[in-house]
Write a structure and sequence with these properties.
Protein name: ABC-2 type transport system permease protein
Oligomer: single chain
Distance between the termini: 20 Å
Helix content: over 70%
Keywords: Membrane, Transmembrane, Transmembrane helix
Number of helices: 10
Number of strands: 0
Largest sheet: none
Organism: Amycolatopsis iheyensis
Length: 227
């Protein structure tokens, strides 16, 4: 397994898109933190937690694209045969990709939280005195980025196309869940992407279960379809 992880790390770090997507997520959050840090009429709100919301979901989409690329680019560039020759087992391939991209997702989440704090302070704002609220907001970002990048891995493996997988993820996260909440009165806290972003355990549990099932399906199809 150590060899598989080393192989995946070399592969993913060699992709320029990995670092561009992480940087873009950080820049978005810094800009959001700066915007809220410059505000002086926040009332009961605080700049740090207010800087998350739509922007951290956009950041999660960018991080998810890293996971999509883990399989999507392998299929599109015809390099999956080489990966299979080196790593052999579909279980090893999916597990290594999931672990490496999860680490990148966690790093992306930490970057987004740090960039938000830096933006708030640069704008002259203050970090929240309530450590609990700040911790919940930061924790939600970390969970969102890790689960989203893993969902990206699964979508890339199942759909075998980077653009299609990223598009489907974006439609679900920003259109389908909004429609379910507005038209079917489904609470946002129970929806996987929105619930995780809102630090709701019900939505996070659903997201975690869906990711586990999707990664299992990816392993199965890799063993059958791509043999």
């Amino acid at each position: 397994m150590k060899h598989a992880l080393a192989y995946e790390w070399v592969r993913v770090r060699s992709l320029r898109s990995t670092w561009l997507l992480l940087a873009a997520a950080g820049v978005l959050q810094f800009a959001s933190g700066l915007y809220w840090g410059l505000k002086r009429d926040l009332g009961d709100l605080d700049a740090f937690t207010s800087a998350f919301g739509l922007v951290d979901r956009l950041g999660a989409l960018l991080v998810a694209a890293i996971g999509v690329a883990a399989f999507g680019l392998d299929h599109q560039h015809g390099t999956l045969a080489t990966t299979r020759l080196v790593l052999r087992s579909p279980v090893r391939i999916v597990t290594a990709r999931a672990l490496v991209t999860a680490a990148l997702g966690l790093g992306g989440g930490v970057l987004m939280v740090a960039a938000t704090a830096a933006g708030v302070l640069t704008g002259g704002g203050a970090l929240p005195a309530d450590a609990g609220a700040a911790g919940r907001a930061a924790g939600a970002v970390l969970l969102l980025t890790v689960l989203s990048v893993l969902a990206g891995v699964a979508l890339g493996g199942l759909l075998r196309h980077t653009g299609l997988a990223v598009g489907l993820f974006a439609v679900w996260a920003f259109v389908a869940e909004t429609a379910l909440a507005a038209l079917a009165d489904v609470p946002l806290t129970t929806l996987p992407f929105s619930g995780t972003a809102l630090a709701a355990w019900s939505g996070t549990s659903v997201y975690l279960a869906l990711v586990a099932l999707a990664l299992g399906a990816t392993t199965f199809t890799l063993a059958r379809r791509d043999a």
